[in-house]
Records
---
Amino acid sequence: MKKLSKIIALSIGVASVMSTPLAFAERNMSLGERIDLLERSVEAKSRSQALMSQQVDSLQTEIAELRGISEEHNYKLSQILERQRELYQELDKLAELTKQASQINRSSGVDSEQDFGVINSGPSSSPTSSYSNSLDENQAYDKAVNLVLKDQRYDDAIPEFRAFIQQYPNSVYQPNAQYWLGQLLFTKGQYQEAASSFNTVVQKYPDSNKRADAIFKLGMVAQKMNKPQLAKEKYQQVINEYGDSTVAKLAKSRLANLN
């Protein structure tokens, strides 16, 4: 009776086995032989399922690792693209500065080989919304920027930008100088001072093309200072105020990693 119950239980679990040609071929087997055959079939099926489960778990682990590697590479790529964008902007600005300085020299009759002083106001030297009419001011700003872009003397660039900010408080380059100073301080790990420079750009220069980047960098500073809630607020501010801009996309990526 006990063996009969076992046969019924096994038959329910391996109905597929009983429907195979092999099962029909073994109809003349004894009861004990049939039980052994069914037990071996069930064991084989169980081992196969266990092996498949292990393989699925292994594949899931590999997929998770690959996803993590992909996300890390995407983040690093976004950082590289951001840095390139900043460098291109500054290089474009330097090219325009050189062009304008040449035009001022020609219109004012100043020899390009002599030391430049402050150009007197006039039709040919009036300041624009983007560039100063003071060659001294232009040179001071160029000197500080070149220490970063050309010479890569980052420590020397910090006092140069600070001196420029103090000497030319009304300069059209103030937001850029403040932003560069913040960048340099951030790189050195002086996060509180960096935040002060970025905040100056955000609060005092609402029309500056550096404002969105400055807000974004405030989010990065907050992350470095273990203030995730403040970081989220800054990244969300970039998204809200600057829509589909490149820096907004970077902010979305950062924000997603914080949630």
---
Amino acid sequence: MSRAKGDAAESRACEYLSTNGYTIVQRNFYSRFGEIDIIAFKDEVLHFVEVKSGEEYESAVQNITPQKMSRVLRTADVYIKKNALECAYVYDAIIVTPASIDMIENITF
């Protein structure tokens, strides 16, 4: 997928989150382990959000691999330590297709 398509999907995901009461804290946080697409805050919980897009839901969600999630977990740990955070946090995914946006909340790996 091109960077432009990924950016467009992330922008749609940010709009979705904002509409649903989330505050966007940061986009595209990088560490040596990987990247977190969106970091958002709602109801005193920090959300680390992985955005995947595709023509169909199934093809997009299949791109959330164990290796990708390992990188997200390690990168989130860097973010928490770097910012000395002591708050509840969860890992979410947003699946963006031309027809829909679906959020999978509090996923575990």
---
Amino acid sequence: MPEIRVLIVDDDPLVRSALSHFVSRDPELQVIGEAASGLEAIAFTERDVPDVIMMDVQMPEMNGIEATAAIAERWPEIRTLAVTTLEGSDTVLPMLSAGASGYMLKDSSAESIVAAVREVHKGASSLSPRIASMLIKHVRATEATGADRTDPLLPLTERESEVLNRLAEGMSNAEIAHALIVSEGTVKAHLGSIMSKWHVRDRVQIIVTAARAGLVEFR
């Protein structure tokens, strides 16, 4: 019985067909619909709420950034995974800031994209390696120039800062727990506290917020 209901949003019907084929091969994933624009995605979601939306960025009528922001506001329980060819910071950062929980490039393997659907459904984050690298370079440039600084964030405790720094290193919850000699439950609690303080909803949003404030050093 499929556990994860997926909506595929892309203005190219061939891409939609290919993604649907890859996703449908996993017995725990079910494609419940397709849409060709952000407006169609919202209209579909009003009728039948998916668990995960695979969202292209560049589309007519309403692009993926606008649609993701609208969906995140109205249906915060839905996870959005960007699946696109665009990999510049002028696209990646707005998409993540709009509420996407992951960002995969279309030239990623089918296995990687399906794994990303699973990851974002669990509340984790998933970034293509090139996207992670770009994000790191952007943060380093921001730290060097002082640009893109936002309003002051609520301060973190010492332990929350330790969790944040290891999150920025790309560690999973289990790896953070091992490094800090605590339980995974404790790590999740610290991450939850950071999300609450900064009014963000997942690990990607924590990283983006910390990056813009110059609070993390990537390794």
---
Amino acid sequence: MLQKIIPKALTVAQLSDSHLFADRNGKHHQANVYQNLKNVLLAIKKQPLIDAIVFTGDLTQDHTAASYELFVNAFEECEITTPVYYVAGNHDEPALLKKYLASAPFCQDSVIENDYWQVLLLESKSATPAGIIDEVECDRAGSIINSTKSQLLLTHHHAVDAGFFIDHHGLLNKAPLQQLLTEYPSIKALGCGHIHQALTLPVKLPDREINLYACPATSIQFDVNSETAKSNGQPPGYQLFTLTETGEITCKVFFV
């Protein structure tokens, strides 16, 4: 497995859930999602010293090839040169992601690391809107983990309940991931998309508790008091992880 080696401290920007259409003027719950994506990318570009960008899925809303092309166009128009990694969301087709996100700045590796940290990307897409991280995927992650370093795991689906309707489409099989987290105490935190909310959720393990940091969407933020998908009116956003040499992790959320 190819790995991106980055020296010193590690700063990773996460964005998620762009829900693009073939038309750059397409709207998702009245939001121009293409313009929202560009606004987020331009905000990330202004951040100093970002080593990598990770997109955690749901690129498309209408499932067209043109929406994937539009995603790439957004990065080109914003002149993003920072390496961009990704995982598939429940709306995405992995083959189309691999086809269209095939050249710089996009990277198809699943590990970003430096001397102190590993950021591991885990696939959670299933045949339904809910997620599955199976034993094979967890075994793959375990084979990569270097226990002398700290790890941040990023995926699309949320591994613990968020407390609103999106939990109907959360991670179905939590046991393999729970076992992975228990087996490797060097894993310091999780990050996900899918929730369309900036939330910090506790993940309780037998020997410790870690945080799941849910990334706000570039499209819309969900109303947690609604029983179905509905915008709460918040602007698009992203989050920024700072991973220090001493194994500490901070996560800051930005709305644009």
